[in-house]
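For reference, the entry.
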Amino acid sequence: MDLSDRLKGGLLLLGCGKMGSAMLAGWLDQGIDQKNIWIIEPNPSAWLKSLSVRLNQGLPENVQLVLIAVKPHMIRQVLPRLAVYVNSATIFLSVAAGISLKTYKKLLGDGVSIVRAMPNTPAAVGQGITAIIGNDVASTDALQLCQDLLGAIGQTVRLDTEVQMDAITGVSGSGPAYVFFMVDSLAAAGEAQGLPADLAMQLAKATIAGAGSLVVQSHKTPEQLRFDVTSPNGTTQAALEVLMHPKDGLGPLMKATVARAVNRSRELSSD
């Protein structure tokens, strides 16, 4: 049974910005009926307006699944709108960073099926990865439906405990931004060595995208791939002596970076 058949009860997107739109695009590619999709989005894109979905037409009387895709600071403001679904069989799927299952229980009440997910922005090209975990009410079928929906935009993993979600946020949720900054930094370094800006950026993008594809597709570990390209006393070794410095290199910097994101996720969860 395809996703369209499994979502005949309707899909409501509360918020449809960049992440919501990326997910929606993946679901439409899977053949979900646009007439069976309701979207509440105060600032819809031209793309959203071009679809046949029920955009800003109010809430449906009943809906099978609600995707909560608003910014974390808006959760307490918008959730009361969903009170009409609290005593139904509706599944709530949230991609709002840092908002715990406990918070949703407090805002929506007991007996509500809630699945918390942390996707990332490569979902826009079907290359994302999403971690999910459900509350005690979420059934096996509810979790599987959410996992299959999220599988339309990349890989999915199920967590053992919600505590892991903060670390997931720091590694894969925020991780694409680290890589984007690395592209900018590598291009800037090329410019500093005399390359034209457009050429430096082309080289940086292709190098990081290609290396990413290689590490995913190869049977070798990242460490072995690094060894393969590092000749003794060569240029790569000279560069890695800087990048892998035990005190000032990328290793300790990345640990500090992820730790800061994880701590912020915990702060959001406790708000």
The chain has two domains: 3-162, 175-270. The longest strand covers residues 128-134.
